[in-house]
């Protein structure tokens, strides 16, 4: 875990993060870091606290404690809407496409947090399906199109740290491949990405590093190079 | 039945006039319910406050400041009334309502109902239940137009046109502008909207301001027609709630169209069978609830 100690050029550093929903204590001191341009995954069983980790970074849980440094700025005390303006884009597990907005309104909804986001033209080039359906009600799209829309709308804002939650869940293999291509493209463009992923094979192909979460704590970290040597260990964590 | 068309048309016009008030008030209620999840029982009280703002500004402001000739004109009241009422709303939202969003509807309902009773009680103490007439109707709106089938008071026509314009403006704001897309998104999924960097608590305050300012505007416009009394809001608000339920809670267009249509219906029924006029809206409400529980324009859950 030597790389974890390197704090230089970090886009995200989470230290001792605790989070609660009402009385239930969900995260018990999460620690991990992501350097600029890196893609890391959060692996673990259902209910281990991966989605909650993303929500806690955004201040969407109940009470939280510890430290969340985004791009060198402490975010633990900030209200949710200010955290987005540090350059964080979130693609929630349930996708959360707005049914009262059409596709283009969905794309235009998140305010720009930096000036260098993608233009609508670039986004439509990346996801041509969205161009064809731009006047449709957001929730009329297919599952795959909704997933693309959920990712596309945070690219417009100029956010450089993307928190992507289960972006392949319930999608056909051909769509998963397409989503994988766009994630690779985003990484190539220098985005920093935290991926919560159930599909380990999908994650293994694109990540620099994997963090394993169990019972609200990071219990292990495996880099891409160590992956084949650590397969048994990971299988045990994930129970596959 | 032998009822002259002329009588039907005149009652329809008067009904439309009432409908304009229903539309303004139910629009505010619908906007507030959609965004804040609060059934705003204080809506009638804010309407009453709007009317009193006009009355006090016209008849009392000068006396209070020691210069009898100083009056807030009707036109000034049209702007200032909604702003004053809206500001009171902001205080209510920031200090009290804000704490209730996470709990059951019932708490917001009880709080706003209590506020309505307090506002009504205070004004009843100073002005009596019967209230006072408003004397500030501008001269240019005196008299009547000849519509062919009836002479229709200019002021009532003004009231209809103004509220239609305002209703359409609010619809446009919510359905067609960027701010409106924030409001719609915040209504649908506040957490994700916040995570995108939109200040949802601020939007809620703004929404409450807008909603009660609409009630305040309706109150100012009502002042020259109905007598200004502490109870004027609670008499009207029951009908307005029926309108919102028929139109569909939280539907903007539903509130506007239903408000106008039911005012019209009420007017026309008055010609055919007057005793039914006060009840017909509630009969319609019962039927609509049986047929479409989410309301005419509401989305089925």
From TrEMBL, chain A:
<dbReference type="InterPro" id="IPR027417">
    <property type="entry name" value="P-loop_NTPase"/>
</dbReference>
<comment type="similarity">
    <text>Belongs to the ABC transporter superfamily.</text>
</comment>
<keyword id="KW-0472">Membrane</keyword>
<keyword id="KW-0813">Transport</keyword>
<dbReference type="GO" id="GO:0015658">
    <property type="term" value="F:branched-chain amino acid transmembrane transporter activity"/>
</dbReference>
<feature type="domain" description="ABC transporter">
    <location>
        <begin position="12"/>
        <end position="240"/>
    </location>
</feature>
<keyword id="KW-0029">Amino-acid transport</keyword>
<dbReference type="InterPro" id="IPR003439">
    <property type="entry name" value="ABC_transporter-like_ATP-bd"/>
</dbReference>
<dbReference type="InterPro" id="IPR052156">
    <property type="entry name" value="BCAA_Transport_ATP-bd_LivF"/>
</dbReference>
<protein>
    <submittedName>
        <fullName>Amino acid/amide ABC transporter ATP-binding protein 2, HAAT family</fullName>
    </submittedName>
</protein>
<dbReference type="InterPro" id="IPR017871">
    <property type="entry name" value="ABC_transporter-like_CS"/>
</dbReference>
<dbReference type="GO" id="GO:0005524">
    <property type="term" value="F:ATP binding"/>
</dbReference>
<dbReference type="GO" id="GO:0015807">
    <property type="term" value="P:L-amino acid transport"/>
</dbReference>
<keyword id="KW-1003">Cell membrane</keyword>
<dbReference type="InterPro" id="IPR003593">
    <property type="entry name" value="AAA+_ATPase"/>
</dbReference>
<dbReference type="GO" id="GO:0016887">
    <property type="term" value="F:ATP hydrolysis activity"/>
</dbReference>
<keyword id="KW-0067">ATP-binding</keyword>
<keyword id="KW-0547">Nucleotide-binding</keyword>
<dbReference type="Pfam" id="PF00005">
    <property type="entry name" value="ABC_tran"/>
</dbReference>
From TrEMBL, chain B:
<keyword id="KW-1003">Cell membrane</keyword>
<feature type="transmembrane region" description="Helical">
    <location>
        <begin position="20"/>
        <end position="39"/>
    </location>
</feature>
<dbReference type="InterPro" id="IPR052157">
    <property type="entry name" value="BCAA_transport_permease"/>
</dbReference>
<keyword id="KW-0472">Membrane</keyword>
<feature type="transmembrane region" description="Helical">
    <location>
        <begin position="155"/>
        <end position="174"/>
    </location>
</feature>
<keyword id="KW-0812">Transmembrane</keyword>
<comment type="similarity">
    <text>Belongs to the binding-protein-dependent transport system permease family. LivHM subfamily.</text>
</comment>
<feature type="transmembrane region" description="Helical">
    <location>
        <begin position="272"/>
        <end position="291"/>
    </location>
</feature>
<keyword id="KW-0029">Amino-acid transport</keyword>
<dbReference type="Pfam" id="PF02653">
    <property type="entry name" value="BPD_transp_2"/>
</dbReference>
<feature type="transmembrane region" description="Helical">
    <location>
        <begin position="105"/>
        <end position="127"/>
    </location>
</feature>
<feature type="transmembrane region" description="Helical">
    <location>
        <begin position="238"/>
        <end position="265"/>
    </location>
</feature>
<feature type="transmembrane region" description="Helical">
    <location>
        <begin position="72"/>
        <end position="93"/>
    </location>
</feature>
<feature type="transmembrane region" description="Helical">
    <location>
        <begin position="206"/>
        <end position="226"/>
    </location>
</feature>
<feature type="transmembrane region" description="Helical">
    <location>
        <begin position="46"/>
        <end position="66"/>
    </location>
</feature>
<keyword id="KW-1133">Transmembrane helix</keyword>
<dbReference type="InterPro" id="IPR001851">
    <property type="entry name" value="ABC_transp_permease"/>
</dbReference>
<keyword id="KW-0813">Transport</keyword>
<dbReference type="GO" id="GO:0022857">
    <property type="term" value="F:transmembrane transporter activity"/>
</dbReference>
<dbReference type="GO" id="GO:0005886">
    <property type="term" value="C:plasma membrane"/>
</dbReference>
<dbReference type="GO" id="GO:0006865">
    <property type="term" value="P:amino acid transport"/>
</dbReference>
<protein>
    <submittedName>
        <fullName>Amino acid/amide ABC transporter membrane protein 1, HAAT family</fullName>
    </submittedName>
</protein>
């Amino acid at each position: 875990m030597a790389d974890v100690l390197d704090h230089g050029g970090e886009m995200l550093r989470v230290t001792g993060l605790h989070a609660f929903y009402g009385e239930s204590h969900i995260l018990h001191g999460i620690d991990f870091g992501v350097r600029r341009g890196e893609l890391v995954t959060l692996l673990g069983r259902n209910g281990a606290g991966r989605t909650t980790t993303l929500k806690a970074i955004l201040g969407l849980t109940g009470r939280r404690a510890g430290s969340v440094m985004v791009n060198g700025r402490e975010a633990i005390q900030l209200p949710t809407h200010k955290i987005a303006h540090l350059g964080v884009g979130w693609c929630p597990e349930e996708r959360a496409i707005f049914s009262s907005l059409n596709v283009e309104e969905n794309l235009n909804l998140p305010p720009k947090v930096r000036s260098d986001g993608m233009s609508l033209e670039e986004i439509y080039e990346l996801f041509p399906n969205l161009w064809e359906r731009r006047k449709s009600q957001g929730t009329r799209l297919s599952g795959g199109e909704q997933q693309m829309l959920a990712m596309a709308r945070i690219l417009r804002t100029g956010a450089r740290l993307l928190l992507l939650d289960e972006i392949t869940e319930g999608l056909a293999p051909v769509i998963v491949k397409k989503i994988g291509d766009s994630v690779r493209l985003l990484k190539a463009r220098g985005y920093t990405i935290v991926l919560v992923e159930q599909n380990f094979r999908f994650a293994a192909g694109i990540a620099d590093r994997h963090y394993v979460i169990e019972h609200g704590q990071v219990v292990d970290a495996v880099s891409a190079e160590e992956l084949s040597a650590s397969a048994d260990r990971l299988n045990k964590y994930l129970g596959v | 039945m032998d009822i002259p068309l002329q009588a039907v048309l005149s009652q329809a016009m008067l009904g439309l006039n009432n409908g304009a008030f229903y539309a303004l008030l139910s629009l505010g209620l619908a906007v507030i319910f959609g965004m804040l999840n609060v059934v705003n029982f204080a809506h009638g009280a804010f309407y009453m406050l709007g009317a009193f703002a006009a009355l006090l500004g016209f008849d009392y402001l000068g006396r209070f400041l020691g210069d009898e000739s100083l009056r807030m004109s009707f036109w000034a009241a049209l702007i200032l009334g909604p702003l004053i009422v809206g500001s009171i709303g902001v205080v209510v939202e920031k200090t009290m309502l804000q704490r209730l969003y996470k709990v059951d509807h019932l708490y917001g309902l009880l709080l706003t109902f209590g506020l309505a009773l307090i506002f009504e009680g205070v004004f009843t103490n100073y002005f009596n239940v019967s209230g006072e007439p408003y004397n500030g109707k501008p001269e240019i709106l005196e008299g009547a137009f000849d519509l062919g089938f009836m002479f229709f008071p200019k002021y009532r026509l003004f009231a209809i046109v103004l509220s239609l314009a305002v209703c359409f403006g609010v619809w446009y704001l919510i359905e067609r502008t960027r701010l409106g897309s924030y409001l719609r998104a915040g209504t649908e999924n506040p957490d994700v909207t916040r995570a995108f960097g939109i200040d949802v608590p601020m939007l809620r305050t703004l929404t409450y301001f807008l909603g009660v300012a609409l009630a305040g505007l309706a109150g100012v416009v009502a002042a020259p027609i109905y007598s200004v009394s502490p109870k004027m809001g609670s008499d009207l608000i029951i009908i307005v709630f029926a309108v919102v339920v028929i139109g569909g809670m939280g539907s903007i267009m539903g509130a506007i169209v239903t408000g106008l249509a039911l005012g019209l219906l009420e007017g026309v029924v008055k010609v055919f069978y007057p005793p039914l006029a006060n009840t017909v809206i509630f009969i319609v409400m019962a039927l609509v609830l049986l047929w479409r529980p989410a309301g005419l324009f509401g989305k089925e859950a």
